[in-house]
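User: We ran a pulldown and think these components assemble together. Before we commit to crystallization trials, I'd like a predicted model of the whole complex to look at. Sequences follow.
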Amino acid sequence: MITMTKQRELSGELLTLESMSTREISAVLQEAERFASGKSWRAEKEIFVANLFFEPSTRTRFSFEVAEKQLGLQVLSFTGENSSVQKGESLLDTVKTFEAIGANVLVIRHPKNEYYEEIGKNLSIPIINAGDGSGHHPTQSLLDLLTIQQEFSSFRGLNVIIAGDLRHSRVARSNADVLTRLGAKVKVAGPKEWMTGYADTYEHVSLDEALSYADVVMLLRIQHERHDGEMTWTKNDYHQQYGLTIERESQMKRNAIILHPAPVNRGVELASELVECSRSRIFKQMKNGVAVRKAVLKRALEIEKFLF
Amino acid sequence: MITMTKQRELSGELLTLESMSTREISAVLQEAERFASGKSWRAEKEIFVANLFFEPSTRTRFSFEVAEKQLGLQVLSFTGENSSVQKGESLLDTVKTFEAIGANVLVIRHPKNEYYEEIGKNLSIPIINAGDGSGHHPTQSLLDLLTIQQEFSSFRGLNVIIAGDLRHSRVARSNADVLTRLGAKVKVAGPKEWMTGYADTYEHVSLDEALSYADVVMLLRIQHERHDGEMTWTKNDYHQQYGLTIERESQMKRNAIILHPAPVNRGVELASELVECSRSRIFKQMKNGVAVRKAVLKRALEIEKFLF
Amino acid sequence: MITMTKQRELSGELLTLESMSTREISAVLQEAERFASGKSWRAEKEIFVANLFFEPSTRTRFSFEVAEKQLGLQVLSFTGENSSVQKGESLLDTVKTFEAIGANVLVIRHPKNEYYEEIGKNLSIPIINAGDGSGHHPTQSLLDLLTIQQEFSSFRGLNVIIAGDLRHSRVARSNADVLTRLGAKVKVAGPKEWMTGYADTYEHVSLDEALSYADVVMLLRIQHERHDGEMTWTKNDYHQQYGLTIERESQMKRNAIILHPAPVNRGVELASELVECSRSRIFKQMKNGVAVRKAVLKRALEIEKFLF
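Assistant: Here's a predicted model for the assembly, 924 residues in total across the polymer chains.
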């Protein structure tokens, strides 16, 4: 008498950007832009969103929380510690619990790459991926895209340099892929050792040389917590060789902008003085993060027909 | 000039099921059934509930939180860490603090058996017990009862087998007592070593033999965190000797159901494949947990006259 | 192209009481008294307050949360652990994040004295200081003042004894300063070793002798967590020499009251039996804490013109 939950067909889930068409992505960005410009929209029914964060997070977790509350949704905020995960409960049983007690949408960050593969087919509510290991982080990618679109209107022909720790980044791959699909010219910069795998399929340039033509310099955070002490540079050496120094920033094109997902390692990827410089869109990215998450949540609620 | 706070007379508190009459229990179950069937009810006044969880919990904590939010109550969520408990503050002083700052109801889980004895008489607001050590867990018992009632309409004459770690369970004793009072025939199964104390007052049967007549098999979680390494079986040995294996499940009566309070130790108390089998009511129990907690909270608010 | 955020001119911030005139303080107390007497007021716009607690707290954190919710504000509750602070994020970047994602007001407790100096000028939203190291705790001072004012109507001529751990207290200095400005006669009591710095500018008396004329005995918590094991008394020795024993309480003036910021070390600063004695205003202080925080938040929202 063993039965299996059936796979869902239409879904408001958002697991990776790779699985979305450019048309879908553009639609989300358009809605996000409306929210960024002040659009107000609230769910008319009582909807519960559970934010399940199995890894530390400030920006993403609270950005989702603000988005949810501004949409009038009820928020359940779960952070792993002080939970039955300490009694050995599996991820699957934890998410099934939230489904059973009434969550309509799950926002999940988890250290395991593609954690959603094992649980998605057992759930009848959508997952919005807030970061899986070194895999994907689609709402971060979307907020990067929104920030670029606000600046340049179109992606076509834009020169985008993605610089730094490509190997451990969960946005670099998605961003490179999606920006290319949207018509931008993507190149990568940084230590050769980190240009393995997918990064190797993009042209590898030196940051110094790329500054003369780059429209967007997208810096990645060095994820010390994922390096296990294998870094061979001092922070200052890295900064001088591969970071965006004050000197390098002065070489950038007139309207070029700087992106960084934050938290910034000040004086490593980026000179501390540049965090709030006029080219920096770092805090604008965070602001856009709320708009993007509202668009993604609204899309999930509409596709899942929770609102009718 | 020392004075004492007076003991309260009428109370919406819920500490144990043992102290409730079967009539009161039936009334709560009836209200819970209305909530489970979609009844909507919201407090018209601003009411604050403080959830104080001094032990890890996912299910119970968030189940209460969903119930509270669906009733339109304001929730304060306290989990011991990052609190003045770290500065050595006593339970009494912590609960008095929440009373002083405006909590109308306290929902408490605490590792100490009958923690409420020392604080209840110093409080003028009701406590809803969300689990005390290995003592009681009345809302868990109520949700078990609701799940059985939904299935069989009445408790009279039902054969209920409570199987497993009876010594450390905080629901087994209450459930055995209340089910007996409600007319069910309760027997216990599991390792002989665990059939001490109150468990010894019930007939001890082997699970294999009981499967032919049991209407309800109520499995208990092995509380590894309370065993201090004294378990003498491997997980698999336990499963084969005392657990509900796939083989045993196939011996169950046609309409018999499986209950488990969760989190499940998959492959120990229960074969992993049976967690979502057609007899399993495990996720329905969780769903019923929200309905039961709404009924208990509404009862507390009404008895305490917070609503007028 | 480096730019700096400009310093804000008019502000709803509350960092220390020292920087407020007695007229401003009286206005806040007057508004707090209205809230304490049942005044109801709710923000008509959606306002987000972020409570950032980098140190453990029960009372202050939840007191702010109740105040915020009673004012109809949206609350973001951040507690340091499970955040990007674990990835080495600075306080400045954390608060800028909350500003970027939409917080309108920040309530901050942080272990560093005057943490706000480095961040205030980079923010365009106000900070309400909920405690900085051993520096200040202005809302605690305000609730002490409100409690005294409710009792004696005026501060002029009142004899206030501040007793205990003056060196590590973040309210003693503010309270001594403000009470003196408001016309009270402040003296200090306790171990000589702790009467250094600002404490040395007040008359040092023995508690025994002061009880005959004191109107208010304001006890301070011994902050074991800030002493690094340098205490030279046992708890009982301290209690007998410097604490408020049952014997000493009986020597107090007819209408004299006891204040303590809590959590109380029962049997150290104060005999356990006195925590709820008729002179004790300890739980009234907590209740007043909510009223005071509502007044401070409302003031911030009005000065910042968030409501129009």
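Chain C has two domains: 22-136+287-303, 138-285. That may be worth checking against your pulldown data before setting up trials.

User: Thanks, that helps.
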